[in-house]
Amino acid sequence: MEHLPLFIKIKHRPCLVVGGGAVAARKARVLLARGARLMVVAPELCPELSALQSQFIWQNDVFNEAYLEQQFLVVAATNSTEVNARVYQAANLRGLLVNKADDSKRSAVIFPSIVERLPLQVAFSTGGNAPWLARLLRARLDAILPKHWGTLSRVAGKFRHKVQSSFATPAERRRFWARAADDVTLNHLLAQGKIAEAERWLKQSIAKPQVGEVILVGAGPGDPDLLTVKALNELQKAEVVLFDQLVSPEILALIRPQAELISVGKKAGHHSVPQDQINQLLVKQALNGKRVVRLKGGDPFMFGRGAEELQVLKAAGIPFQVVPGITAAAGATAYAGIPLTHRDHAQSAVFITGHSKQDGKEPNWASLAQSRQTLVIYMGLMRSGHIQQRLIEHGLAPSTPVALIERGTTPQQRVISGSLIELSALAEQVVSPSLMVIGEVAALSDSLAWFNSKAAEQAQTQEQYA
Fold it and tell me: Where is this region: Precorrin-2 dehydrogenase / sirohydrochlorin ferrochelatase (predicted)?
């Protein structure tokens, strides 16, 4: 990288723009908005610059080096390559900050793309290589950055010293501000422009004892692009993350680098950390005042024992939140081209787990063995023979289509299709994590599958250009 990102105070500093066209106008507008004492040197001005003329000094002239005297920043923005080069060379020899428009290689200063929630500013640049990419990023950030965060920044500035004196360590101060930025009440007050009420809320919050919190987050079925925006925000604020085996490395890479990661991974037939110990870890970390994310694959309330963990937290008096995730029944089937319902094939969908507590009762097989419904079974591989037998015994046709989706939504996804009478044999061909889909809609995968072919095409393209 050749350029160091900096924010420079330009207010009241003398700046020079050489050129009178649209590019010069764009640069002039940025400088004027930040209070620069601006001079423009050009034989004529475009309409946009003419409209701003009362805000700068116009020298109706061609460039000469005398105009560089006592300038702080210089912009070469004429339509002449030769003139721009002369401006750059002369300014560079004098050690001035100089920007040569549309030529990052000849610029000591680059004008970045900016998203503003004043006084908050987010600036970024591609080093002049891909201005279109910077514009695209700016549009995306502008859409997701809360409009009232500029107000939050101003209000927070008033309380900065109070927070520093009230909380002993940087970690405690960071934790306070992270919770404040996330608080529904404070955000509502700021969005409504109720500044006095927001400041009163902050005063009261500073005085309250700071306690830990647990956020139960669903990581989705595997594809990191299926992570919700709220889930991503929580991963970026977490101080401690307890994660399961099914959470993909790509999602773990999105967690803030400073967070402590604790694997409590579970695989079929094996628990690396007993559930009681996971519960106690959550309680311990929260009692230490930490912002703890409990990260689970899929949705934490879909056969994920999330409710059991929250009950322990509730009993311990620890506050918590829940961020739902896309469950495998929705994500993996969509990526396999299997609609859960279809007007011609299934009017309902039922989700069950393939195993339960040791003393758990058998499911109501008669209600599950119904035609024109989709049966989705989590964690059913080890009991596939039993599931096959019981469904057929209760009247479901042996020819009923089935599909096993292995590692759904990931590049390693495989879909094995067949009929109910073949279920136990099909299960031997796949590994966990896999999802069973039983019902007429399973047969639609052959015609509606899209993900595997797209993934194969992308892999072939990457190999071609490797």
Answer: 1-202
